[in-house]
Amino acid sequence: PARLGSSVSPVCLAESSDVFAAGTNCVTSGWGLMRYNAPSTPNNLQQAALPLLSNDQCKRHWGSNISDVMICAGGAGATSCMGDSGGPLVCEKDNAWTLVGIVY
What we know:
By secondary structure, the chain is mainly beta.
């Protein structure tokens, strides 16, 4: 089990009524590849700051693969990669990190 402390703590869960607007800066983290076809995964947990995108912005890029219940985040220079699936997408709400999505 994890030992909770100043650098390890549980994340809050978003409520069904929460709205996180496009442009909100969020963070994802994971142990996935640091670039496409990298030979190995990193030794340290990686994180990337990503702005939330509107569903329309996401559909323009990914088309019909995006449903109305999906959350999309991304920006230039940072992304999740192979091996990050299942990891968290957290946004700050009331000074607490809140889980708003899971990396697909």
